[in-house]
Design a protein that fits this description.
heterodimer, A: mainly alpha, Cytochrome Bc1 Complex, Chain D, domain 2, two-stranded antiparallel sheet, 14 helices, elongated, B: alpha+beta, Immunoglobulin-like, 5-stranded antiparallel β-sheet, 16 strands, binds iron/sulfur cluster
Chain lengths: ~300, ~525
């Protein structure tokens, strides 16, 4: 600021910067003042129209009945309506076309996948994990191993009607002794390694063939057609060691322990309407009633595309 | 009290109070009053710089004609905002390469700085759209309302029908130019011919109407009414001038040593008469007469010669006594910002050179050398030698940065990748074990097609022994869009010692096999 005022008579306040920029004490222009007063008038109308004045218990609601949530809902509904209109033909196609055909339409398929994420997250991910990554004793959906078939129609059927796993408790019906179970377990472990014909597991193999195993798991350890029985020749284990308290009779440490438990106590084995101790639980609920056919189709496509659909 | 110049203006304010700012002193900036009052009605006179100004202004014709240029049947320059593309003579710039535009901005910013360091506000005086539009507007004003004196008179008249009749056409033409400006601007953002069509059908979008109206009115208002006030009051570029020029910068300057003390012709003539009188009184007339007669002249010739010689002497003395400036005020009258350049370099001056034209025309008339006002640097006037521009560090630094920007720009434009590939690794799940014991990872591959042709992108994956991949046949990608494909990659556990291994995803256009891009990604598996 300059020490003295080179513009003494122009009505400046004496504040001078950069040698020549100075603050003048001029009245605001008329239009400005009018706008200023118009602002005051506005406030009155605003206060009447919108929620404004805080009261001891709440606030004035305003004659318009406006609330932020209402506005949000309105625009959300608008968005929903917009989406609905925009994708109406796709939704239509999804509802009316058979799955085989939808799968051939790349565009529709991608649309189904894109719109399923929330549906899957809300309904399926609790057991099958985000993105179908699986949880102990709940099947992984992102792999290529399918108990009930990986074709789109089979996946659809599994979701729509549900599935109940079923394997007799070999150890309890008395048809296999503990020792035999151990041998079969050795054989099953070897099958997974591709060593089913190894002489060291010949005993287990014989028991497997003689017992009822073949009926469901097939003569080679692989079910002849998808029937819910695990494929024993691959590297994926339907049940893995998990000491979650549902079995007090044994402690599962290794994969072999898990196999032994499954053979011994079966899957979904009931006595007097109650699940017996240590039996595996494997129940997939039916979703068709709850979600409707179209949503189940959508999910089937999503699951098919997760990683291993056939 | 402050000392006044002859014409009643104040002498430099620096004379009045102490300036402790060294910089101000060094660059010789004088604090002068700027015109904030009445409309400046500048005289228009022809001249060298006037011509230059028109030539420079014609650059802006590209604004009006640019949108109609075609290139391969497409609009040559098009900012396609909805599709996020910029087309420039067959080159398409997508958002991924938007830094190219940043380089263009950087280049021009430094060009501005470099030019300013060399020759002051070249931009302001010759190229700035505000100057150019204002110039055209005032030119039209002169066409409709006559020369400045008439216009000033007209302004003072009360508003009546006569006045409106004169003023209205001008305002209509101004508004028309405003519309042409905003419409042309808009036409760079959409198909220009289509825009015309839609305009006639009154079928423009909300934002298009708004742009045309707001920008058009702004043009009318700023070029028609605000004029030099924009340069003086709003323009930030004007405010940083002091930092951008130095002693070696040439700008239109009044040669004070040569021009002062100024005197009008009347005063000069009076002085010449006075000297003649004095010479006569001192007996010079007699002396010369005798001398010429002695040289053998006849009496009539000698008499004439005596008068001539005396007048010449008197004139010479007057020239010694006065400066060359005859205080005709023409340099002030022609100035579009109402500046008196004779007060020195100043903030209001946009260095348009019009006062040079004006003064040169006067010097020609009074038979004095031109250049009383001329492009010169402060160093010139101090008698110092101005280094050539290529030896001035600030110019060199500006030019270096400019060349870097230009280099990067050229490099990028000649190496615009026709394809851009990104692969996103699926996170949930990171990996899955398949029934044969291999590990599978899933990637979403995004392919940006920057070519003008449809692309048939074929995806392949390279990695360690045993790698298998599954993906869609080929992915069709339309020009300027992003195509997408899911790729599933499988590796045997034996290849995954580290838990993660690098893989390469390669995308190749089957239509043009030379278009190919490789994306480096990782494959993640269980650690063991
Ligand atoms: S002083 Fe001269 S160069 Fe500066 S703006 Fe005025 S006419 Fe142009
Ligand atoms: S135009 Fe030249 S002679 Fe006339 S007043 Fe300006 S500087 Fe002086």
């Amino acid at each position: 600021m300059a020490g003295h005022n080179p513009w003494p008579n122009e009505g400046n306040t004496g504040h001078i910067w950069d040698e020549d920029i100075r603050e003048l004490d001029n009245p605001p222009p008329l239009w400005w003042m009018l706008a200023f007063y118009a602002g005051f008038v506005m406030i009155i109308f605003y206060a009447i129209y919108y929620p404004t004045i805080p009261l001891a218990n709440g606030f004035t609601k305003g004659v318009a009945g406006w609330t932020a949530v209402k506005e949000y809902e309105e625009s959300y509904n608008e968005l929903k309506a917009w989406r609905k209109a925009k994708f109406a033909d796709k939704e239509e196609a999804l509802a009316s076309k058979p799955l085989n055909e939808i799968m051939k339409n790349e565009d529709l398929k991608l649309y189904a996948v894109a719109t399923s994420k929330m549906l899957f997250g809300d309904n399926c991910a609790a057991c099958h994990g985000a993105g179908g990554m699986g949880n102990p004793n709940f099947p992984v959906l992102a792999d290529d191993d399918w108990l009930w078939g990986g074709h789109i129609n089979q996946i659809y059927a599994s979701i729509a009607n549900g599935r109940v796993g079923n394997m007799p408790a070999r150890g309890l019906m008395g048809n296999l002794s503990d020792d035999e179970i151990e041998k079969v377990a050795d054989y099953v472990m070897a099958l997974s390694e591709g060593k089913g014909n190894d002489p060291s597991v010949a005993a287990g193999k014989a028991i497997y063939a003689k017992g009822m195993c073949v009926a469901c798991h097939g003569p080679t350890g692989k079910p002849v057609a998808p029937n819910g029985a695990a494929n024993l020749t691959d590297k994926i284990w339907r049940f893995v060691p998990a000491n979650d308290g549902s079995c007090t009779l044994m402690d599962e440490q290794t994969q072999r322990d898990a196999v032994v438990r499954t053979i011994k106590y079966g899957v979904n084995v009931k006595k007097n309407g109650q699940l017996i101790d240590c039996t595996r639980q494997a129940v997939m609920p039916a979703w068709k009633e709850r979600l409707g056919e179209k949503e189940v189709k959508r999910l089937a496509i999503y699951v098919h595309e997760l990683g291993g659909g056939q | 009290m402050s000392e006044l110049n002859r014409d009643g203006t104040k002498a430099s304010l620096l004379d009045e109070y102490e300036v402790n700012s060294k910089t101000l002193e060094e660059i010789g900036v004088e604090i002068l009053p700027v015109n904030t009052g009445k409309t400046v009605h500048a005289k228009r006179i022809p001249g060298h710089y006037r011509t230059l100004k028109w030539i420079a202004a014609s650059v802006w014709l590209t604004l009006f004609f640019g949108p109609y240029l075609r290139w391969n049947g497409e609009q040559a320059i098009l900012w396609d905002l909805p599709n996020r593309q910029f087309h420039f003579f067959g080159i398409t710039i997508l958002p991924q390469d938007i830094w190219v535009l940043a380089m263009i901005l950087l280049f021009f910013a430094l060009l501005l700085a470099a030019v300013t360091a060399i020759a002051g506000r070249v931009w302001c005086g010759y190229f700035c759209f505000h100057t150019v539009w204002t110039d055209v507007f005032t030119w039209l004003e002169e066409k409709f309302e006559g020369p400045p004196a008439k216009r000033i008179k007209l302004d003072q008249q009360p508003l009546n029908w006569e006045k409106i009749k004169i003023k209205l056409p001008k305002h209509l033409v101004w508004l028309l130019i405003g519309f042409a400006t905003s419409f042309s601007f808009l036409a760079f953002f959409t198909d220009a011919f289509d825009l015309w069509k839609r305009l006639f059908h009154l079928d423009l979008g909300k934002w298009e109407w708004l742009t045309i109206i707001v920008l058009g009115l702004a043009t009318y208002f700023f070029a028609g009414f605000m004029r030099e006030q924009v340069c003086i009051g709003f323009c930030p570029y004007a405010r940083i001038q002091g930092a951008m020029i130095d002693e070696a910068t040439v700008v239109p300057t009044y040669d004070k040593d040569r021009g002062e003390p100024r005197a009008q012709m009347k005063e000069r003539n009076a002085y010449v008469r006075e000297v003649l009188q004095r010479l006569k009184k001192e007996g010079e007339e007699q002396k010369l007469m005798e001398q010429f007669l002695a040289e053998g002249m006849d009496e009539r010739a000698a008499k004439k010669k005596v008068q001539e010689t005396l007048r010449q002497r008197a004139n010479e003395e007057a020239d010694r006594h006065f400066g060359d400036c005859i205080d005709c005020h023409l340099c002030v009258d022609v100035c579009p910002t109402g500046v008196d350049i004779r007060l020195g370099q100043q903030f209001g001056c946009i260095t348009c050179g019009l006062c040079i034209d004006a003064c040169d025309s006067i010097m020609e008339k009074i038979k004095k050398p031109k250049g009383l006002i001329r492009y010169a640097s402060l160093d010139d006037f101090l008698g110092k030698e101005t280094p050539p521009w290529y030896k001035r560090p600030r110019v060199l630094i500006y030019i270096t940065v400019m060349s870097i920007a230009a280099g990067l720009l050229l490099w990028k434009l000649t190496h615009l990748d026709p394809i851009d590939v990104k692969a996103l690794h699926d996170r949930a799940p990171l990996f899955v074990q398949m029934s044969d014991g291999t590990i599978q990872n899933k990637y979403t591959v995004k392919i940006v097609n920057k070519t003008p042709n449809k692309m048939m992108a074929k995806i392949s994956v390279e990695g360690p022994e045993g790698l298998v991949y599954l993906t869609d046949r080929v992915v069709p990608v339309e020009p300027g869009t992003v195509g997408q494909a899911i790729v599933r990659v499988r590796l045997p556990k034996s290849a995954l010692k580290e838990g993660r291994v690098p893989i390469r995803i390669i995308v190749q256009d089957q239509n043009h096999p030379e278009i190919k891009s490789t994306y480096e990604s990782v494959f993640i598996g269980p650690k063991h």
